Amino acid sequence: MPEKNVFKIDEIPFQEVEWGTSKVIVGPDANGSEHLRAGITEYDPETPHEPHSHPGQEEIIWVLSGEGYTETHGVKMELRPGLVAYIPSGMEHKTAAVGGKMTAIIMKSPVKDSSGVAS
After folding, report:
1. Is the pLDDT of residue 119 over 80?
2. What is d(CA 54, CA 62) in angstroms, rounded to the nearest whole number?
3. Residue 57 and residue 81: Cα distance in Å, rounded?
């Protein structure tokens, strides 16, 4: 079981991903978390996150800054500070920034989807 800890978010480096940059704050590789994965993603408006799903894994996108949208089955829902998107397990979705970088806290549970991937 992992120990209780406090993290200095600014000391955790961002990694390049296809849709911007991201860093994992809590998760199996970050601190041994067994049930929750949390991180920060900076979405680049030039490279939207393509449609995908997380079978067996729920997701929350909590917008800190910037603007964007999440899209499911062709229906776009606005994302901006003060809004949180909940994505049920297995639901295909796409997330993108509009007009500039969008920064969000991303939380997923369990840490791995039903295929064993910690996404």
Report:
1. no
2. 17
3. 24
